[in-house]
Amino acid sequence: MKIGIFSGSFNPIHVGHLILANYITEFTEIDEIWFLVTPQNPLKENAELINEDLRLEMTRLALESYPQFKCSDFEFKLPRPSYTVNTLDALNEKYPEHQFSLIIGADNWDTFHQWKDYKLILDKYHIYVYPRLDAKLTIAKGLRSSVEALESPIIEISSTFIRDSIAEGKNMKAFLSESVYNYIEEKNLYR
């Protein structure tokens, strides 16, 4: 099976993530998308990062009605910080029956050369890059067999915007799946 790895903090997961994942399963060769909740991105500060188990539960709730999406805590069991190359190799070792690809945004593609062992990722895995509003997406000719620019809709909803808005007392129900919205309310998160 062809599995797309969509890794992120999902702090919180929102409808933009779901729209993008839906596009990828419908318009590429990807059969399933595994949402890997990341304990800590090595290139990001974690000051606003809530507990990983809360983020995992929100992700699980958001994906309940999508059989082609899976929620995963795979990186929770790996050494930290979580480096994508190590995660992909560990997935490949544990699930040799699957073919794994990486899904990243154009903003991440801009800094991809800073990732640990990025050349190994390019050599071993297919990468799908989705557009972002403020990122110009350029893929060198020599990489186009392993890196694919998606023509997916540009969804400019950010988890930061949602967190900040909730902290200001705004109703963000339309930006989140109902179960995630209810979970945030119940647990009084981001206030």
UniProtKB/TrEMBL annotation:
HAMAP family named in the record: NaMN_adenylyltr
Catalytic activity: nicotinate beta-D-ribonucleotide + ATP + H(+) = deamido-NAD(+) + diphosphate
Record-linked Pfam families: CTP_transf_like
Record keyword Zinc-finger present: no
Keyword match ATP-binding: yes
Signal peptide annotation: none
Gene3D superfamilies cross-referenced by the UniProt entry: HUPs
PANTHER family associated with the record: NICOTINATE-NUCLEOTIDE ADENYLYLTRANSFERASE-RELATED (PTHR39321), PHOSPHOPANTETHEINE ADENYLYLTRANSFERASE (PTHR39321:SF3)
CDD domains cross-referenced by the UniProt entry: NMNAT
GO biological process entries: NAD+ biosynthetic process
Gene field: nadD
GO molecular function: ATP binding; nicotinate-nucleotide adenylyltransferase activity
Family indicated by similarity: Belongs to the NadD family.
Protein name: Probable nicotinate-nucleotide adenylyltransferase
The protein's Enzyme Commission number: 2.7.7.18
Keywords (A to Z) from UniProt: ATP-binding, NAD, Nucleotide-binding, Nucleotidyltransferase, Pyridine nucleotide biosynthesis, Transferase
Physiological role: Catalyzes the reversible adenylation of nicotinate mononucleotide (NaMN) to nicotinic acid adenine dinucleotide (NaAD).
Organism: Dysgonomonas capnocytophagoides
Coiled-coil intervals, chain numbering: none
UniProt pathway annotation: Cofactor biosynthesis; NAD(+) biosynthesis; deamido-NAD(+) from nicotinate D-ribonucleotide: step 1/1
Every Cytidyltransferase-like domain range: 5-163
EC main group: transferase
